[in-house]
Specification:
heterodimer; A: 10 helices; B: mainly alpha
């Protein structure tokens, strides 16, 4: 296997479902490397080390760990006049999301974490006057879980086919383009639309009249 | 065959010498740190080995008696068993040293990718990758030494109690040396591949594949350093195994110490950097040359 990734296509969204991958991202430096830097641009170990104020050896070990779980890929190599052989790394996707459905099916602490997260989301709706009674929370969680799962499936099928052009865009342009394409993809998916409709009806049934 | 030119070879050696000179203090401290840990681990393996073997051979007076028991086991064993014991004991005892060698490649990649180095990082490579580097080292040891053991078994079976004549002996030794140099060369990129995050089997395959496609690149570096090593160790080998007398008394002992120090503290770091740079270059067939190093500030 060549360390230079065979596929240079960058995914728009990747759903992280493997608990080992999630654990790798629990490290603050690794999360910073991926979410702050490598989702936005290709960078070398030296550039990353300068940006986060760590020594290059430390960054290199983090990169190696991230590569091993498929969050980061090597995209190109340059030989400089100083003799250094610079490898450029990039995240494998523009955005990562935790696969709620898979986490809910897991047997370790991930399940409790995912459940808590969804419950907190539902409790937050109170601010908009949506009060879901305790007896209906399980139903709400179930609809939400299925809707997120479908949304993730549809969004993660989108691929950035021109990575060079993508890299030339500003972060705002990237975010806008991504949002527009996801909207299009979602609007064309009948299963997602059915789930969304169900969710909307559910929420509206608990909306207190102001 | 990759497009490895004489210029690449010279540039790689020059840079490796230059980086070794620039970062020598860090490299020296890294080697020293790794050496201390390696020796401690080696002694631990001896200690554990002596406890286990004491159940078979009775209690040992000294931890190093474990070598005596291995020697005893070799004496009692048949040729096939002897090769098995040598491979098993050799790979177990060499594991910490092979890991140390592998950890130095982590340092090599750090230097060659970023142009800087910190001594403590080598120890972290050693700690974090111990299992994989040790296993990778043992696999290399078995691939390199296994066929030589097979040659020994076949020769012992063919000749029985007779000694082979000098021409046959020369052929046997030459075959063993040629295999040693060839197999070590094709496996010389296993450690850089492991440092790069690959599994042991993928690293072994990757090293063989890279060497197949970039034979000149890999072997020009490997032959250079193995020749220099053999040049230094040659007189010792000849003196130990033939009637040839190179030096006597304290001068000979001093030469042995000096050779080991030159190999461990000078040749080894330069080789590690050269092999790492070669690996980084040949592992991406689409590598580009740029005018200056891109840093965050300059982009």
């Amino acid at each position: 296997m060549n360390p230079v990734s065979a596929s240079r296509l960058m995914k728009d969204l990747e759903i992280i479902t493997d608990p080992n991958t999630i654990k790798v991202l629990f490290d603050k430096i690794r999360a910073l490397i991926v979410f702050k830097y490598l989702v936005n641009e290709e960078m070398t170990v030296k550039q990353l080390a300068d940006a986060i104020g760590k020594n290059p050896g430390n960054v290199l070990r983090h990169i190696e760990r991230l590569k091993s779980v498929g969050l980061v890929q090597q995209v190109r190599t340059e030989k400089t006049t100083t003799g250094i052989v610079q490898r450029y790394y990039r995240a494998t996707a523009r955005e990562y999301r935790l696969g709620i459905a898979d986490m809910m099916k897991s047997n370790d602490g991930m399940k409790a974490y995912a459940k808590d997260r969804l419950r907190n989301m539902l409790l937050g709706l109170e601010a908009y006057g949506v009060s879901i009674p305790e007896t209906r929370l399980a139903e709400a969680l179930s609809i939400l879980e299925r809707m997120f799962e479908r949304e993730n499936q549809v969004s993660s099928a989108l691929t950035i086919t021109n990575a060079e052009f993508w890299n030339s865009l500003s972060i705002h342009q990237q975010e806008d383009a991504s949002r527009l394409m996801r909207d299009v993809a979602m609007a064309r998916d009948s299963e997602y639309l059915k789930l969304k409709d169900k969710w909307c009806s559910f929420v509206m049934s608990f909306l207190k009249a102001s | 065959m990759g497009s490895w030119k004489l210029r690449d070879y010279v540039e790689t050696i020059q840079l490796s010498v230059s980086f070794t000179r620039t970062y020598y203090l860090s490299i020296f401290l890294a080697i020293l740190g790794v050496f201390v840990i390696t020796v401690s681990l080696f002694l631990s393996i001896l200690f554990i080995g002596s406890i286990l073997l004491s159940f078979v051979y009775g209690p040992f007076d000294d931890m190093f008696d474990v070598f005596e028991s291995i020697g005893l086991a070799l004496d009692r064993a048949s040729d096939v068993e002897a090769v098995g014991i040598a491979l098993f004991a050799g790979s177990a005892l060499l594991a910490p040293f092979l890991t140390a060698l592998g950890a130095l490649f982590g340092m090599g990649q750090e230097v060659m990718e970023s142009g800087s180095i910190s001594a403590e990082e080598v120890l972290l490579w050693y700690r974090q990758k111990f299992a994989r580097l040790a296993a990778g080292g043992m696999v290399q040891f078995l691939i390199i030494v296994g066929p030589i053991g097979m040659e020994y078994i076949l020769a012992a079976w063919y000749y029985g109690d007779r000694m082979p004549d000098s021409s046959a002996f020369t052929i046997l030794v030459a075959t063993a040396v040629a295999w040693f140099l060839f197999s070590s060369g094709i496996l010389s990129l296993v450690f850089p591949s492991i440092v790069d995050g690959m599994s042991i089997s993928s690293s072994t395959k990757h090293s063989i594949q890279l060497t197949r496609h970039n034979f000149r690149a890999v072997f020009s570096i490997w032959i250079t350093f193995s020749s220099l090593g053999l040049l230094l160790l040659g007189p010792i080998i000849f003196q130990e195994f033939t009637d040839f007398i190179f030096l006597t008394g304290a001068a000979y002992d001093l030469y042995i110490v000096a050779s080991v120090l030159v190999i461990g503290l000078l040749l080894l770091p330069v080789y590690v950097l050269s092999a790492t740079r070669t690996y980084l270059i040949i592992s991406d067939p689409n590598i580009k040359e740029v005018q200056e190093s891109h840093t965050k500030e300059s982009t």
